[in-house]
Amino acid sequence: MSHVFPRHCHASLPTAVAGDGCYLIDKDGKRYFDGSGGAAVSCLGHSNQNVINAIKEQAEKLAFAHTSFFTSEPAEELADLLIANAPGDLDRVYFVSGGSESVESAIKLARQYFVEKGEPQRRHLIARRQSYHGNTLGALSAGGNVLRREKFAPILVEMSHIAPCYEYAERDSAEDLEAYGQRVANELEAEILRLGSGTVMAFIAEPVVGATLGAVPSVPGYFKRVREICDEHGVLLILDEVMCGMGRTGYLFAHEAEGIKADIVCIAKGLGAGYQPIGAMLCTDHIYNTVKEGSGFFQHGHTYIGHPVATAAGLAVVKEMLNNDLVNQVKQRGAFLEQALQAKFADHPHIGDLRGRGLFRSLEIVENRDSKKPFDPSLALAGKLKKAALEEGLVCYPGSGTRDGKHGDHILLAPPFIASEAQLTELVEMLSRAIDKTLSKTIR
Ligand code: PMP
């Protein structure tokens, strides 16, 4: 009997014992194609020798040195490499151990920045509905995923939530894409004015929404308008690229596609590619200097920040991406996957939307394509689909519909950047079989 407290108490899970390229292998020797990189993590597959060697070498040299006393060579080198390849004015890197820690750090940095700047009245954070920013209490407070929040609602920090940019479900048919984008971006301004312009510290958003909606990019012009509004009201723009960053969408930083500058960016998942737990928060020199010239230090920290083995892994991962031009390949392989998904599902009676960017894609499953009506959430379709896909030998990440009836179940795909066209074709075949089996059992 397993004594591990699993994510879902009722789940009995296969035991993973090995990784081989894009595949995971369980104790019985069954191979699973990792079609979602876990949850958009394993971008280099599971057996990248350069990353493994970097981890071994660093562990043999130096496993740990506390950041109150020391910096380390891999942390410095990784920070330099990220900054050299980051867009805009991102000039400082703060390492953490994962996505939630990165978002917590961003929220606290935004607050401390305004305190040091002499604007302590700025305390509000605005986020979006149907977003996910992590499971620790601050990050969960920012997130707008109703199901993940509801049991904890009484102990969450109060934050505002405006509309996401989710045109498939929320755009009026009479409205063109641009008008829709401006309308939902303008909700940010309305909320800033409602709270009081000088009281808002930051707006946080995922450039491509991941876990809650499933690979939803914004419409053209949306983020430009968001940036303008932030500038007009002195509000910081925090972009959460924990899931969509690090090459996943065909850009090293997902917001490069929007042509805007961020004040703070959160990354994680793809940075360690699953080889080590690592995340990072990047910010501008202006924010860093304001804090430095104020208290002298960022009043935050965790024992394992800047961990030498984790940063050595991150460094090897980013070098692997850059040296092999993987980010551009994500664009090409993403286009191939998009076409394969279109060919298979464009006429499927229950696939309402196929969307995404690069190798970050999803399928929204609906009862009725014309009305976009989702299936009843009590059918727990996404969970059943995940199980059927595992039986087929495919790992794909399920997302449940929301109870407001606006958003259906979805399946998120985030295969490794090294997946071949043949493997992507096989992914689509396995997924199609899993969808058809699940639907034929669930709906009669
Ligand atoms: N932000 C986003 C956008 C995420 O997708 C996630 C994880 N799915 C997190 C934050 C939290 O990251 P972690 O699970 O590493 O704490």
Automatic annotation (TrEMBL):
Record's GO cellular component terms: cytosol
GO molecular function: pyridoxal phosphate binding; transaminase activity
Alphabetically ordered keywords of this record: Aminotransferase, Pyridoxal phosphate, Transferase
Cofactor: pyridoxal 5'-phosphate
InterPro entries referenced in this protein's UniProt entry, alphabetically: Aminotrans_3, Aminotrans_3_PPA_site, PyrdxlP-dep_Trfase, PyrdxlP-dep_Trfase_major, PyrdxlP-dep_Trfase_small
Coiled-coil portions: none
Annotated CDD domains: OAT_like
Family under the similarity heading: Belongs to the class-III pyridoxal-phosphate-dependent aminotransferase family.
Protein name: Aspartate aminotransferase family protein
Organism: Marinomonas algarum
Lineage, top ranks: Bacteria, Pseudomonadati, Pseudomonadota, Gammaproteobacteria, Oceanospirillales
